[in-house]
Amino acid sequence: MNQPEFENPEAPALVIGSSGVDIVGRLKSELRKGASIPGQIRTSFGGVARNVAENLARLGQPVTLITAVGQDEDGERLIRGVEAAGVDTHAILRTDQYATGSYLALIDPVGMLQFAMDDMRAASCLTPKYIEDHFHLFREASLLFVDANLPKETLRKIMSLARRARLPVCADPTSPSLAPRLRPYLDRLSITTPNSIEAAILCGSPMTVTNRRQALQIAKSLVSQGVGVAIITMAEQGLCYATSETSGYIPAVRTTIVDPTGAGDALSATVIFALLNQIPLDEAVRLAASAASLTLRHRGAVVPDLSLENLYNQLVI
After folding, report:
1. What is the largest CA-CA distance in the chain?
2. For residue 301, is it left (φ>0), alpha (ψ between -120 and 50) or beta?
3. Is the pLDDT of residue 52 over 60?
4. Residue 33 — left, alpha, or beta (φ > 0 → left; ψ -120 to 50 → alpha)?
5. pTM of the predicted model, to two decimals?
6. What are the start-end ranges of the H helices in the chain?
7. If you average pLDDT over residues 279-305, what whole number do you get?
8. Residues linked to residue 27 through DSSP beta bridges, in sequence order
9. Which among 58, 110, 144, 298 is least buried, having the fewest CB atoms inside 10 angstroms?
10. Could you tell me the end-to-end alpha-carbon distance of the chain, in angstroms, rounded to an integer?
């Protein structure tokens, strides 16, 4: 499989997974246990699925989001914000069981993530029944994107419905702790975009990926296990990608990191958008690297003026 084939690329992308409020603090000096130190704190809306949906909408792709938010002000504002970006929000679940999700992160003075935690319990309210009740959205979609914050039984239902609807699937492992949830479905994934740690977990390898040769080996291993397009990100070392017919490497764009939150989600969304629009894989991956770079320079999870024109303006050669 060299590049996914889409039966109806102009149809909405269906995005299912997490959403919430990001609280990100950038330290001005070294963190000291038991002490408060100066820094910059920002809040915005985030969550892997929500970020991917907004990026897709800003690039011009019709998109429907299935996520769960609380019956609270954050949930209301999140829905209004993503709707204003162009996302179809009618299938978002409002729950009174949990508050709207949240993500708390600390990044160091040069922009690298040091510590993070999240509370995405609201995603557990996306039950198999809720997903089954929205099967018509699978039949109407061009592609499905999922993140691994979803409960295992819900992921199982989603994959089953995607198979019934003959829908290509793109998945983000989300974190090393959640990546094992995707392992049973590697042969169902048209596209996956893990970082190097998540990729090794996905393919069951004990390897610690430290260079592009190892990353390319892992990408090819994922393809041998059924993945259509495997794209492995390596932060400042760039990314590697592989299909059954091709492979390649894209160096990282040299850039000042303002905030790393959401860069991987921008990459995933851009790959999806590019392939839906029949842009060749090599070019799609370069555009995705550009999207990640733009997001790294933005204080927030999504660049508000993201566009194909902006991506081409700083295309990685």
Report:
1. 56
2. alpha
3. yes
4. beta
5. 0.94
6. 48-59, 73-84, 128-132, 135-139, 152-164, 196-202, 212-224, 263-276, 281-296, 308-313
7. 92
8. 39
9. 110
10. 24
